Amino acid sequence: MQVFVTGASGWIGSAVTDELLAHGHKVVGLARSDASAAALDAKGATAHRGRLDDLDSLATAAEAADAVIHLAFNHDFANYTEAGRLEHAAVKRMLDTLAGSDRPFLIASGLASGVPGKPLTEDDPSPFHGADSMRGGSENLALSYAERGVQPVALRFSPTVHGMGDHGFTSALTKVAKERGAAGYVDDGATRWAAVHRTDAARLVRLALENPQASTRVHAVAEGGIPSRDIAAAIGDYLGVPTVSVARADADAHFGWIGRFFGMDLPASSERTRELLGWTPTGPTLFEDIAAGAYAL
């Protein structure tokens, strides 16, 4: 299968590219720089030069593919609304291109529930609709195209997709802890994050690609809800610094941009995903990666 992958040289996307190539698929990866194009070529993938705001380029690559996996996103936290609008426009253009073809369209999404404290399941719809909502409402936009001859699958990734070389949320928390001399958590630290190892997430994406009708939503969740105080304690143990509580009112000042996410309760289940796709996570846990130096600075 020839698969067009946006974000193919990113943290999750590069692992997905490796997984697809290892199982006989051909990968055409969106590359916005010479370095990204060279990295894809070195893996045996084909680079397609372009950007998320180049809608014609996205449509051309989608039209030529047997399936699309959309993993790219402009993480501009200073202008998140505009990033969502760009996402909405890019997703809509690719979906319009695939309409009537019965081809799979897999889209990266996150874990967000409208019911605080309740673990999110695959049956729970996303509360975000429209271009001005979180991530441009792209999950619901994609799923709406099931009625227009596309096979959409929402790939809901854990807040932390961890592994050696991760520069995401846990890396940001570790950097703050080192700078502050203490590993913090918000209030009583009871809020939870789901987690998954990068290789397990990549394998899930491949399984969802090969079985696109198995589920419209799949959860890349290995650990369903790790208390934030335990994450902070693991970071503190690794760095050799104390663990402290930070009042929610002071979270932005203490943590910076990562504080708004670390204070969110984001537990989730992947029971249905495991049953439908035969997916069993086998990679290291988040704590094992922290202890092994995945977030050495």
TrEMBL record:
GO molecular function, one term: aldehyde dehydrogenase (NAD+) activity
CDD domains tied to this protein: SDR_a7 (cd05262)
Occurrences of domain NAD-dependent epimerase/dehydratase (ranges): 3-215
Pfam families xref list: Epimerase
Coiled-coil ranges (or none): none
Domain of life: Bacteria
Gene Ontology cellular-component terms listed: cytoplasm
Record protein name field: Nucleoside-diphosphate-sugar epimerase
